[in-house]
């Protein structure tokens, strides 16, 4: 365990002196640091343990550290060591000075094919190395590609990455994650996906933006955006060379079975031009990780979940739950027997369930409650109600018994309307 000391010239962290803040995020900040022994510059990612626990991203941080420990490649941001105190984690990372690839494209526009191909070669080198180590990034995008002082790329932000232990028995990953414009169609399909194949799709989106200056799939309406992704609906500018067009078509193939592999990309004629593979640095010493970094204990807070409270869901799960955004509706017939009704409410989950319980009890139904779920039954029918919390909104799912559900729905919507209409301004 280390103790950060404040000196007149700056904060001292072991042999590092911390300087200016390079950036800030939801659960910490990144500061410039200098090794006082060697004089070398580093970036120190400082994570607040309480914030990590509050945001329920403990596993994500542990995964990022475990992943970066495995990776020693010139096109991947290097983790040098991990220090910790009782309240903070300090990730000492390679200092990359050239900013994000996103900023370069946003300010200068598309790159010439020769320059774009060089960056794409480095990207594929880095991603291929990660896959060979059993690491699948799952959030490759321009914002997560950094540039060093010489213009070489560095893949960063492995917080959503997957390792072999994250695969299910079917050999596939099932967590829906990533960034909307870069996510592969099979990830959206929510039936399991291969991490390597989905990463390749994201690399294809990055290549398209590098060479054109804009995204291949883009729309303000998420449903329309995901429909375009699912169908592989994009246009190739005529001024792109035939070789670049051909490779983009092979990568942005919506069917993951038909999509080109990394080996296929490396053998592609357009890709091979002036290609010099990078050499990994696997022979270097192991990375030191302070055991205190993984010592994080849940602390009671008013905002924390209590036993039996509704589960938290993320944006992708919300999209998958919504019939207007569920992509399967574009391609599959709905089974009426499985139809569900969903709506949102401003009531707390507790109040919502109590209101529902009062109504259905008066209607002669039996009610059983457990772990945020309410089972309602009678001699003629049975259905259940489940609440999921998205920030401060309660998303309620009703199964079957449509007439009864509609009675409850209308009552709650009417109650919400009255509450909103009589709410006094703050």
Provide the descriptors you would attach to this structure in a database record.
serine/threonine-protein kinase, 20% strand, Phosphorylase Kinase, domain 1, ATP-binding, ATP binding, disordered C terminus, Transferase(Phosphotransferase), domain 1, alpha+beta, transferase, TATA-Binding Protein, 5-stranded antiparallel beta sheet
Q: pLDDT below 50 for ≥5 consecutive residues: which ranges?
A: 299-304, 330-341, 388-403, 416-426
CATH class of the largest domain: Mainly Alpha
Order of helices and strands: EEEEEHHEEHHEEHHHHHHEHHEHEEEEH
Count up the helices. 14
Report how far the terminal alpha carbons are from each other.
47 Å
* Overall 3D form: globular
Radius of gyration: 25 Å
Protein name: non-specific serine/threonine protein kinase
Family: Belongs to the protein kinase superfamily. CAMK Ser/Thr protein kinase family. SNF1 subfamily.
Cofactor: Mn(2+)
Enzyme class: transferase
Describe this structure in words.
Its EC number is 2.7.11.1. The chain has 426 residues and is of the alpha+beta class. It folds into 3 domains: 4-95, Phosphorylase Kinase, domain 1; 101-272, Transferase(Phosphotransferase) domain 1 (Transferase(Phosphotransferase), domain 1), CATH 1.10.510.10; 315-419, TATA-Binding Protein, CATH 3.30.310.80. It is 34% helix and 20% strand. It is built from 14 helices and 15 strands. The strands form 3 sheets. Strands 1-2-3-4-5-7-6-10 form an 8-stranded mixed beta sheet. Strands 11-15-14-13-12 form a 5-stranded antiparallel beta sheet, with helices on both faces. A hairpin with a 2-residue loop joins β14 (382-390) and β15. α4 (113-132) packs antiparallel against α6. The protein is globular, with a radius of gyration of 25 Å.
């Amino acid at each position: 365990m280390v103790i950060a000391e404040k000196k007149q010239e700056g904060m001292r962290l072991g042999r590092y002196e911390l300087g200016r803040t390079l950036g800030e995020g939801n659960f910490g900040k990144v500061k410039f640091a200098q090794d006082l022994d060697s004089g070398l510059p580093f970036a120190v990612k400082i994570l607040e343990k309480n914030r990590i626990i509050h945001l329920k991203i403990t596993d994500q941080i542990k995964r990022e550290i475990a992943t970066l420990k495995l990776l020693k490649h010139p096109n991947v941001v290097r983790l040098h060591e991990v220090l910790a105190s009782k309240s903070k984690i300090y990730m000492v990372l390679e200092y990359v000075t050239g900013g994000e690839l996103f900023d370069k494209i946003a300010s200068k526009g598309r790159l010439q094919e020769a320059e774009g191909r060089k960056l794409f070669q480095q990207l594929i080198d880095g991603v291929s190395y990660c896959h060979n180590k059993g690491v699948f990034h799952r959030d490759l995008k321009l914002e997560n590609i950094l540039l060093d002082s010489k213009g070489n790329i560095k893949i960063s932000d492995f917080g959503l990455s997957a390792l072999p232990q994250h695969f299910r028995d079917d050999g596939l990953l099932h967590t829906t994650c990533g960034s909307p414009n870069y996510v592969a169609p099979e990830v959206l399909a929510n039936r399991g996906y291969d991490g390597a194949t989905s990463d390749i799709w994201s690399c294809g989106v990055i290549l398209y933006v590098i060479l054109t200056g804009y995204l291949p799939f883009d729309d303000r309406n998420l449903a329309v955006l995901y429909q375009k992704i699912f169908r592989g609906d994009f246009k190739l500018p005529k001024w792109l060379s035939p070789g670049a067009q051909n490779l983009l078509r092979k990568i942005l193939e919506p069917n993951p079975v038909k999509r080109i592999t990394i080996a296929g990309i490396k053998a592609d004629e357009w890709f091979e031009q002036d290609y010099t593979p990078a050499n990994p640095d696997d022979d270097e010493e192991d990375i030191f990780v302070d055991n205190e970094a993984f010592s994080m204990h849940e602390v009671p807070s008013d905002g924390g979940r209590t036993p039996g409270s509704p589960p938290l869901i993320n944006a992708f799960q919300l999209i998958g739950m919504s019939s207007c955004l569920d992509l399967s509706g574009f391609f599959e017939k709905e089974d009426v027997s499985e139809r569900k009704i969903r709506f949102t409410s401003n009531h707390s989950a507790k109040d919502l369930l109590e209101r529902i319980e009062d109504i259905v009890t008066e209607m002669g139904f039996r009610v059983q409650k457990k772990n945020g779920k309410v089972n309602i039954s009678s001699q003629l029918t049975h259905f259940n109600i489940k609440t999921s919390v998205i920030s401060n909104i309660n998303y309620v799912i009703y199964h079957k018994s449509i007439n009864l559900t509609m009675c409850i729905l209308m009552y709650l919507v009417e109650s919400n309307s009255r509450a909103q209409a009589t709410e006094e301004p703050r």
